Amino acid sequence: MVTLAVNRGHPDGIRPGGVRVKICGLTQPEHVDAAVGAGAAYLGFVFFPKSPRHVSVAAARALALEAPVGVAKVGLLVDATDDEIAAVLAQVPLDMLQLHGHESPERVAEVRTRFGLPVMKAVGVAVEADLERLPAYEAVADQILVDAKAPKDAVLPGGNGLAFDWRLIAGRNWAKPWMLAGGLTPGNVAEAVRLTGARQVDVSSGVESAPGVKDGAKIRAFVTAARA
Fold first, then answer.
1. E strands along 94-199, which residues?
2. C-beta atoms surrounding 94 within 10 Å
3. Active-site option among 95, 142, 147, 202
4. Is 147 considered catalytic here?
5. Which candidate in 24, 95, 142, 202 is catalytic?
6. Entry's Pfam families (predicted)?
7. In angstroms, rounded to a whole number, what is the distance separating the alpha carbons of residues 160 and 55?
8. pLDDT (tens digit per residue) in 35-44
9. Which of 8, 65, 81, 146 pairs with 130 at a CA distance of 20 to 30 A?
10. Are the C-beta atoms of residues 108 and 119 closer than 8 Å to each other?
11. pLDDT at position 161, please?
12. Residue of 216, 110, 17 lying closest to 121 (CA atoms)
């Protein structure tokens, strides 16, 4: 198992400000630079053709090579086959895989074992009953992404700009590291962190000027607000 090297120099692995930020759906070098410059701990690259944030393997490789050591590069995949994952990893130097589809706990464990990388599993939440799915994934994943559940007719499993009721997870403690996602923006992330106690947050559409087009100023504002 590969050890995820993040935020070297800080004993708890968390950069100053106490909250780690993931900027997901990066497609352009200038936005990678903006995320790194703002202090993001994770950079997310989407390998899902239906997403406006989808990047080719070649483009993702170039972007990942721009990132300095200590900033984790995460590949987001949706119900991907072993061959599809292998094709990405053959070219892109990723530190973590994010499984954002309907992968079962057994599939998560299989991917983690086969590819030797930490795995983050996204779990969609709309109502309290959805949280009952977390323990099974917590047993096999390295991290859990607690995201807003996508509508049944949605094309994308995430990145829809939707939030869920953060009070559902207020005061909850999980054994594995977890990350909050879903409808976060520079304007609401501080409140989300306050209500949930999240130590990690993930944003995609909330720092865009248009679908799939990141905004450097919004990225910087988001990171600042998350640590406020």
1. 96-99, 119-125, 143-148, 178-180
2. 24
3. 147
4. yes
5. 24
6. PRAI
7. 18
8. 999 999 999 9
9. 81
10. yes
11. 64
12. 110
